[in-house]
Amino acid sequence: MALRDTVRARIAEAQQIAVLTGAGMSAESGVPTFRDAQSGFWAQFDPQDLATEDAFRAHPERVWDWYAQRREALSGVSPNAGHLATAAFAQRHPGRLTLITQNVDGLHQRAGSTNAIALHGSITEDRWLDAPRGCCGATPIEPGQPPRCGVCGNLRRPAVVWFGERLPQSSLDRAQAAAHACDLMLVVGTSGVVYPAAGLALTAHQSGARVVIVNPEPTDLDLVADACLREPAAQCLPFLLLDPA
Ligand code: OAD
Q1: What is the tens place of the pLDDT at every residue in 111-121?
Q2: Distance (Å) from CA 188 to ligand 1 centroid
Q3: Contacts 24+ apart (CB under 8 A), 84-91
Q4: Is this structure's pTM higher than 0.85?
Q5: N or C: which end of the chain has fewer CB within 10 A?
């Protein structure tokens, strides 16, 4: 039996499945990853210049523009067969699959995964940079790059988690609970170098779950994997998650 057939059978018998996704999940939709040596965002830009609170405070226009460009690019792409298969499985098997994503692109949600745990926030939303005062939002937000409170100048910022920031505690709690409780975790399209997200695979492994990696390249999490399927997500996930026609 080929490895992918074995994994498919394990998924069919698993009671609780956690799926942890990263940028590679959206690669076949045309969204760049972060660490690809040629096309990755962090091959072209220094994350310290674009993905930290200090960078935003120092150069709010530059950081806002970069996120605005990414938002614009996302409006032209669609969920791929991997996003759709994940959503379809969850709909067909209520309560069996918990989706945890590091992606901020909203493609899982657009594919129909309404309960996805978005560990790193959402690029389509923004929030106040500093704790809002009474004026913030009470009067119209002044448009700009970035928009700001017309009274106190508090800035709107992308509602994503930047380097050095804590993950939303409720999302992390839910993700950790799923990692503890699952009997199988699929780790799809992530290099596994960013914590605490990558630690979820270690938690699943330590809690006795089977860990299956779906990634054309080796990852830092292969050490804890029971199986590594070296395939692209949009090809592999429909095979693993959808019933044969
Ligand atoms: P990375 O860019 O670090 O890793 C992407 C992974 O996807 C690599 O392991 C690729 O081999 C794999 N990959 C590429 N194409 C694929 C495909 N078609 N199918 C499956 N896998 C494929 O992205 P992440 O691991 O998501 O943080 O990065 C983690 C975090 O670092 C991101 O959430 C982001 C970034 O800085 C924040 O935005 C806070």
Answers
A1: 999 999 999 99
A2: 9
A3: 84/111, 84/112, 84/238, 85/237, 85/238, 85/240, 85/241, 85/242, 86/19, 86/21, 86/111, 86/113, 86/237, 86/241, 87/111, 87/112, 87/113, 88/112, 88/241, 88/242, 89/241, 89/242, 90/115
A4: yes
A5: C
